[in-house]
Design goal:
2 domains, 128 residues
Length: 128
């Protein structure tokens, strides 16, 4: 039977840390090369998306998605901001994902109910 010192040996730690670094580097490379799957308008100026985000911020900013508010998820200066949330919201606005796909993605990622106030509010802005 292995002792605890064998389970937590420096060799095992370094191997795990090295493989974690390699995976992070590979993911970063894919994102930089454009294989990350982000909606194009999430990263460049788009007046229609900007108008949609302004409506969402104005009408839904204080609404909650799980433990966070919509404003916290949208604000790049917030430690709780989420590039995934903005990307998925961009995809909703552009029609690249359905309302059902959006709701499932946000609810699953931020551990909230599908009919949470924040999600309902954002979806309502899409129909305006």
């Amino acid at each position: 039977m292995l002792g605890l010192h064998n389970l937590f040996s420096h060799d095992g730690f370094y191997a795990t840390a090295e493989s974690s670094r390699a995976r992070a580097l590979a993911a970063t490379t894919l994102l930089l090369l454009g294989f990350g799957g982000c909606a194009q308008d999430a990263w460049r100026a788009n007046p229609n998306f900007s108008a949609f985000l302004n409506r969402v911020e104005s009408n839904c900013g204080t609404a909650r998605i799980g433990e966070l508010t919509v404003s916290q998820l949208m604000n790049p200066g917030s430690p709780q901001s989420s590039a995934y949330f903005l990307d998925l919201t961009s995809r909703l606005d552009s029609g690249q994902v359905s309302v059902d796909e959006y709701v499932l993605g946000v609810a699953g990622t931020f551990n909230t109910e599908r009919d949470s106030a924040g999600i309902r509010c954002i979806v309502a802005q899409k129909t305006q």
